Amino acid sequence: MTRSAPAAFSRAVFGYVASVAILFVLWEYFSRQAVVAMLFPSPQSTWHVAVKLWEEGRLATDIALSLRRIAIGFALGSAAGILLGVLMGSFRSARAFFDPYLQFFRFLPALAWIPAAMLWLGTGEASKIALLIYTTVFVVALNTMIGVASVGRNQVRAAQCFGATRWQIFRMVTIPSTVGHMLTGMRLAMGNCFSTIVAAELLAPKAGLGYLIFSSRTWMQTEFAFVGIAVLGVLGFIIDRVFHLTTTRVYARYLPTAYR
Amino acid sequence: MADDASAAKAGSGDAGRIVFDAVEFRFHEGAVPIIRDLSFEVDGGEFFVLLGPSGCGKSTVLNLIAGFETPTQGTIRASGHPVEHAGPDRMVIFQESDSLYAWLSVLDNVAFPLRVVGVPSGERRARALAALKLVGLQGHEGKYPGELSGGMKQRTQLARALVLDSPILLMDEPFAALDAQTRAILQDELVALTMRVRRTVVFITHDIGEAILLGDRVAVMRAGPASSIKEMLAITLPRPRKRSSVEFGELYERINQSISEEVRRSLRQEDGLIA
């Protein structure tokens, strides 16, 4: 019994289709059980609202705004996280100094900081992006630090034999061998960003997918929330796939086999 | 190789010469010494084998020559200079091939030392290819370490160690993890190679046959801790040596007895400690 690659692929596609189909059937079923239809919109009514929101141009605006916030927060947070992780992985003193903060904050969700963020940074873009940076930085730092600390001893020793300076070892051995860990951290952080954007857009926004979800409460338009949830989930899925595929292509040789 | 000046010198004067003078090493103050009062000399261009039971401190000796560890007493000189840290005059070939850089191609791995030293990129390629040819890896330069067999990985390590024309090669059981056939082939090729490009080789093994097959001299180490050299044997069998020859067998028996004595002695010592 040998399994060919196309067979494995079609099996995976079948699995995806079946699982999504079952979800829709269950969704349809439970929405019909709802006493008040408005409280549990069906797939069709959600779809109609989504189309309407798209035609009005509002959905595109919400998506664009949320993605822009995520992109900025994720990029800045990743850069800071990599810097912090490299510092902590390279220098014992930096590790000792920053470790308490890392271990403290990484268990605190961005949600907990919403009141403080509003007070300090106002209700504009700054506070939202700050929360996204916050939710990115620690997980990236932690993974980067582990990567730097677990550089192969013999790889470093070989480089020492060639007469490499500490800076050369850092640049030519430590950093390339840590790329896989950085990307793992960033992939986890992207997930965090998607959870956090909903909370961040609680902060008196004018638009955004999180806003779309919360605004539904005000007008009892449950469909809005469903559209927001569905769009966020699908976007998260697509972005994770794209991130994973591009990084495994571009950085294949930097990655441990487990990540691929 | 492009520059054999240093290698040529290995046969004369201090180049490639290693001198241990009453060396002691402990991992930290108050710990039992791994090796104690170890003195020996390796001539430039000599193939020197350190043979001993596991845990006897063979690898420690190699790490000391490489400069990865510093003796707690005594001095080590390589090519006339005191060893203070690792440097490009002493190349290590590790037992595990995890010292290769997984993100670099075979060619870039072999060119890596040249990049460290600052050789211009055009020259790097030519010299790396020459080193790869020397170990029989021509045609594989575009592969990545993950795509290589165990034997090819060790060849890559060897090419990378040869590319700087260092007078001293330090080999820490480089063939121990390979299958018997591959090991035999690489042993033969290593002998042929070191006869062509003359280098001082310090080769560590626990395999008696390998020691006799390769070494100009074999140093049998005492069982640790506080190890030193028990006896030094000059292997005068003509090359290429055959494992099936009578002289080979006699020598094997002799060394085997010597090592068995050491293992038994260390077991008795441990018993004594427990009692």
Can you identify the CATH superfamily of chain A?
A: MetI-like
Structural class of chain A: mainly alpha
For the largest sheet of chain B, list the strands in their spatial order: 6-7-8-3-9-10
Q: Compute the CA-based radius of gyration of chain A.
A: 22 Å
Biggest sheet of chain B, in brief? 6 strands, mixed
Q: Output the number of helix runs of chain B.
A: 8
Question: What does this entry look like structurally?
Answer:
The complex is a heterodimer of chains A (260) and B (275). Chain A has 260 residues and is mainly α. Chain A has a single domain, classed as MetI-like fold, CATH 1.10.3720.10. In chain A, 80% of the residues lie in helices and 0% in strands. Chain A has helices spanning 5-33, 43-56, 58-90, 92-105, 114-121, 125-149, 153-161, 166-200, 209-219, 222-250. In chain A, helix 3 (58-90) packs antiparallel against helix 8. The longest helix of chain A has 35 residues, at 166-200. Chain A is globular. With 275 residues, chain B is α/β, with parallel strands linked by helices. Chain B has one domain (5-89, 166-274): P-loop containing nucleotide triphosphate hydrolases (Rossmann fold). Chain B has helices at 5-9, 58-66, 106-117, 121-134, 150-162, 180-196, 208-214, 246-274, and strands at residues 18-25, 35-42, 47-51, 73-78, 81-82, 90-93, 168-172, 200-205, 217-221, 229-234. Chain B has a six-stranded mixed β-sheet, with helices on both faces. A four-stranded antiparallel β-sheet of chain B has the order 2-1-4-5, with helices on one face. In chain B, strand 7, helix 6 and strand 8 form a beta-alpha-beta unit. In chain B, helix 3 crosses helix 4 and helix 3 runs parallel beside helix 5. Chain B is globular and about 60 Å long. The chains are: A mainly alpha (260), B alpha/beta (275). The interface between A and B is medium-sized, with 20 and 29 residues.
